[in-house]
Amino acid sequence: MTGRVVVIGVGNAFRRDDGVGPAVVEALRDHVPDDTVLAVSDGEVGRMLDLWHGADTVVVVEAVRGRPARPGRLHTLSVAQAAAQANASASTHGLGLGECFALAEALDRVPRELVVHAMEVADVELGTGLSEPVRSALPELIDRTATTVRKAHDHRS
Question: CB under 8 Å to 69, separation ≥6 — which residues?
């Protein structure tokens, strides 16, 4: 095991609330250990697998649509939970995390620990800036993600 910890903020900052994942990654730059890999992805399955290749712990931060919608509501999901939710078309992207996890499993590229921190969003139309409910919940999402990263680093020590 490498002990490598990777955080992937999935989303597009030019689709309003879909930019929540990249916003978390940017906020973490000065709040996690220096050897943490921080990356932004558009959610394309091959690129996601390349980003987490060789990592022991992967933390994915993603925007999702809930039914019924509760923008700003936070979820922390295991791989199985995230795959089930992603397969129910909850992702804001064409291909979701479910497809990514299935391919990782088929290729034997699932990290030892994979955690998904997701936020329900309101607006994924073209434009910049987060909606009020998402912006209000962002500090808690950043805190949850940073806590997961610190725990992963503590476990490898």
Answer: 120, 122
